[in-house]
Amino acid sequence: MKCYKPFAQGDHRWLVFSQDEHKPGSVVDTNQVAITSGGHAILLDPGGIEVFPSMIGALVQEVDLDSVSHIFLSHQDPDVGSGLALWRQVTLPGTMVHISALWPSYVAHFDSDTHFSPIPDEGAELTLGGTALRFLPSHYMHSPGAFAVYDPTARALFSGDIGAAILPGTPIRDIWVTDFNNHVQYMDGFHRRILACREARDAWVEMVAGLTLDFIVPQHGLAFRGQDVPRFLDWLSRLEIGSGVGAYRGRTARK
Ligand SMILES: [Fe+2]
Ligand SMILES: [Fe+2]
Q1: pLDDT tens, 202-213?
Q2: Which one, 28, 58, 93, 225, has least CB within 10 Å?
Q3: Which ligand is the nearest neighbour of the Cα of 79?
Q4: Which ligand is nearest to the CA of 48?
Q5: How distant, in Å, are the alpha carbons of 41, 165, 222 from that of 7?
Q6: How much is the pTM?
Q7: Ligand nearest, relative to CA of residue 28
Q8: Domain 2-245 adopts which CATH fold?
Q9: Does residue 96 contact residue 71 with C-beta atoms inside 8 Å?
Q10: Is residue 198 a contact partner of residue 241, using CB atoms and an 8 Å limit?
Q11: 115 C-beta neighbours (distance < 10 Å), count
């Protein structure tokens, strides 16, 4: 598991754990993020059971586990948080897990003893040490109850599955997109299929375009910085989404 450090200002840091060379080949690669500030840490989409051993091994090189007071899940998928029971066992008892108010009773199937803090639809703020973080509504992008995390001080966004790329298996030694036009091929099919609501897509793009942003980190693939941030938003705003609907065409219930 590699650790990238896209932002550091004193003890306010963004750490991206990624490209786990030890994970089983059947498991999609995921980016796990830790934000530290003022002696506290929050884990964003800390990942599934399969990546837990590598993830915790990499995390403890950088972060004291006793400082992890919050965990954020962008949505309910297993690659986001099926390792919850394991995280509960290695973090202090008061650690809160923030997730859309739609999901605690469902995600409790991963771990019924987790302490959930349901996020209301309109979002919420969280103060981590001296840093104010915002949970931004991202509903239907792709889950009906989804949030992104905005850090106005780091000028950074964790976007969950939005902006995700499924990269080819060749070794990668960077976390940044360096050739956006070439990178589109790794995002295109994924977004066309997992997104279905144009109204939600348009609202999300408008919201994110209004933020001051130096970089965006998605849950899979590479991160966007500088001019690749508006490039990504422009690409997303034009994409034909809902491709799975095509499977219904020509079918009736009696066929
Ligand atoms: Fe997902
Ligand atoms: Fe995902």
Answers
A1: 999 999 999 999
A2: 93
A3: 2
A4: 2
A5: 14, 21, 15
A6: 0.96
A7: 2
A8: Metallo-beta-lactamase; Chain A (3.60.15)
A9: yes
A10: yes
A11: 12
